[in-house]
């Protein structure tokens, strides 16, 4: 995995604006951010930030559960489930993670159990470390663009085929 630091919010915003400016054409009917937010109910970049934050929180949760349960545990018939894994799974079952994942961490932090609060602090740190050091942001963008292009071609091909029938 790539070990480069995650780009800062300011640099991401600046690059996104530059990309939008390059894509914008005078005759384009592209929606402004405000118009898109009104039409869709959210700003697309804000929604992406929320979903990526939730993904990082879920990933950090899985890392902590795997560490607590022991390596190789997933293939064993005699599965060892740690107390922390049980707490995480119970909390996720009661209230699935929504939004950016912060509410899940806040609920863990509010627990009366000291081990659960420590696991929540660890979750915060693992999430940050994963975002800064392990998550390959460039690969995500590249693969997402490839997937969208593949889907576009398949949909247009299907549309053309149905139109000719």
Strand count, sense and closure of the main sheet? none
Overall residue-averaged pLDDT value: 83
Number of continuous helical runs: 7
Gross geometry: extended
Task: Report the uncertain regions.
Answer: 25-29
What Rg, in angstroms, do the CA atoms define? 21 Å
Tell how many strands the DSSP assignment holds.
Answer: 0
InterPro entries: Chaperonin_RbcX_sf (IPR038052)
How are the SSEs placed, and which strands pair?
Layout: H1 9-23, H2 33-40, H3 44-69, H4 83-94, H5 102-109, H6 114-134, H7 137-164
Helix pairs in contact: 3-4, 3-6, 5-6
InterPro entries: Chaperonin_RbcX_sf
Provide a descriptive summary of the structure in words.
The chain is mainly alpha-helical and 165 residues long. It has a domain at 45-134. The chain is built from seven helices and no strands. The chain has helices spanning 9-23, 33-40, 44-69, 83-94, 102-109, 114-134, 137-164. Helix 5 (102-109) packs antiparallel against helix 6 (114-134). The N and C termini lie far apart (47 Å). The model is unreliable at 25-29 (pLDDT under 50). InterPro entries: Chaperonin_RbcX_sf.
Key terms:
165 residues, 0% strand, mainly alpha, 72% helix
Explain briefly what this protein structure is:
The chain has seven helices and no strands. The protein is mostly helical and 165 residues long. The N and C termini lie far apart (47 Å).
């Amino acid at each position: 995995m790539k070990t480069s630091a995650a780009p800062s919010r300011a640099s991401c915003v600046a690059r996104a604006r530059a990309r939008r400016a390059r894509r914008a054409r005078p005759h384009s009917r592209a929606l402004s951010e405000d118009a898109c937010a009104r039409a869709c109910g959210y700003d697309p970049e804000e929604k992406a930030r929320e979903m990526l934050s939730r993904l990082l929180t879920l990933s950090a949760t899985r890392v902590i559960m795997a560490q607590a349960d022991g390596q190789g545990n997933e293939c064993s018939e005699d599965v060892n489930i740690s107390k922390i894994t049980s707490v995480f799974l119970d909390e996720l079952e009661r209230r699935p993670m929504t939004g950016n994942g912060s509410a899940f961490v806040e609920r863990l932090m509010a627990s009366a159990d000291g081990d659960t609060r420590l696991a929540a602090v660890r979750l915060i740190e693992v999430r940050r470390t994963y975002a800064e050091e392990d998550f390959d942001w460039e690969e995500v963008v590249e693969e997402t663009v490839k997937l969208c292009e593949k889907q576009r071609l398949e949909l247009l091909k299907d549309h053309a085929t149905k139109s000719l029938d």
